[in-house]
UniProtKB/TrEMBL annotation:
Organism of provenance: Mangrovibacter phragmitis
GO molecular function: chorismate mutase activity; NAD+ binding; prephenate dehydrogenase (NAD+) activity; prephenate dehydrogenase (NADP+) activity
Protein name, entry field: T-protein
Predominant place of localization: cytoplasm
One Pfam family per UniProt: PDH_C
Domain Prephenate/arogenate dehydrogenase, chain residue ranges per copy: 99-361
Taxonomic path: Bacteria, Pseudomonadati, Pseudomonadota, Gammaproteobacteria, Enterobacterales
SUPFAM superfamilies: 6-phosphogluconate dehydrogenase C-terminal domain-like, Chorismate mutase II, NAD(P)-binding Rossmann-fold domains
Length: 373
């Protein structure tokens, strides 16, 4: 038995080595693709190409008796690495004549990410930090674009402190709230104004498939090239008004972060043994717990700023608290039928998305289970 297993495992090892060789060759080809895309200003992420390629590989896998989901999982992981590799080849400069870009707060994580992408795209970048304000006029006097990338609670203060900028300079902010910073920029600068919200963390390896929300402030024709540059980096851009953005972020960020904070606070106050929770957890609970833990591994000031950025957020959280109490009363009274009726009502509200999310989450759960030691 041992000899038989050893022989088979040796063959598997040889196949694995062959796979490594093929993966290395694929990455070499991806590097060549990256050079071509960089030369012609093509985006690193093309949804139609990816969808077509995956559909073909799934069909071919099925013909070979290989589970289609397996090849898709493998290829998606390989493509994620490929998108990161393509970053290293740089990007086409869409506005070659742009004067220096100044990133205020460029030493922060998001500021450093934008600095890296801009430099890879051939632009001259300067950094302005808190200690540099005595030289602010000198650093900003010939700026072609100024990007404000500071904590939310400092954003408007920094904008209001800006010295006069060149009339054609593009003033941009990256805050996760948009209406107040946008109004502050419009008041501080009479030239082009753009509000951006990168919907991802600064630790992302690539902007491929990431979303960047943009809110028009003034003179969109002056910064249209920058939106196209962001698309060349691989991101998808989504336009929305600043007011609508903040209304949606109340649900996407403020309410979700508060609920996560409250759950983490409850676990800590209950002094739950995390190692036991993990040992007993299903993949979905492990994933949920990981998302809670992720929050508490980051800057608390950021989340305090997001949650407390608006009185509307507080009102929304209070309504959530009220509905939590209403749901709790169903449990207190043992009213299973009312619970089921409420469940069905929410199921109806989700509609087809419920089944879609169930399917989408399967891959996440498999990955959570794969990472279990």
């Amino acid at each position: 038995m041992v000899a038989e297993l050893t022989a088979l495992r040796d063959q598997i090892d040889e196949v694995d080595k062959a796979l490594l060789g093929l993966l290395a060759r694929r990455l070499e080809l991806v590097a060549e693709v990256g050079e071509v895309k960089s030369r012609y200003g093509l985006p690193i992420y093309v949804p139609e190409r990816e969808a077509s390629m995956l559909a073909s590989r799934r069909h071919e896998a099925e013909m070979l008796g290989v589970p289609p989901d397996l090849i898709e999982d493998v290829l998606r992981r390989v493509m994620r690495e490929s998108y990161s590799s393509e970053n290293d080849k740089g990007f086409k400069t869409l506005m070659p004549g742009l004067r220096p870009v100044v990133i205020i707060g460029g030493a922060g994580q998001m500021g450093r990410l934008f600095e890296k992408l801009l430099v890879l795209s051939g632009y001259q970048v300067r950094i302005l930090e808190q200690g540099d304000w005595p030289q602010a006029e000198t650093l900003l006097h010939d700026a072609g674009m100024v990007i404000v990338s500071v904590p939310i609670h400092l954003t408007e203060q920094v904008i209001n402190q800006l010295p006069p900028l060149p009339q054609d300079c593009i003033l941009v902010d990256l805050a996760s709230v948009k209406n107040s910073p946008l109004q502050a920029m419009l008041a501080a600068h009479s030239g082009p104004v753009l509000g951006l919200h990168p919907m991802f963390g600064p630790d992302t390896g690539s902007l491929a498939k990431q979303v960047v929300v943009w809110c028009d402030g003034r003179q969109p024709e002056a910064y249209q090239w920058f939106l196209e540059q962001i698309q060349v980096w691989g991101a998808r851009i989504h336009r929305i008004s600043a007011v609508e953005h903040d209304q949606n972020m109340a649900f996407i960020q403020a309410l979700r972060h508060f609920a996560t904070f409250a759950y983490g606070l409850h676990l800590a106050e209950e002094n739950v043994q995390l190692d036991q929770l993990l040992a007993l957890s299903s993949p979905i609970y492990r994933l949920e717990l990981a998302m809670v833990g992720r929050l508490f591994a980051q800057d608390p000031q950021l989340y305090a700023d997001i949650i407390m950025s608006s009185g509307n957020n507080l009102a929304l959280i209070k309504r959530y608290y009220q509905r939590f109490g209403e749901a709790l009363s169903l449990i207190e009274h043992g009213n299973k039928q009312a619970f089921i009726d409420s469940f069905r009502r929410v199921e109806h509200w989700f509609g087809d998305y419920a089944k879609h999310f169930q399917e989408e989450s399967r891959n996440l759960l498999r990955q959570a289970n794969d990472s279990r030691q």
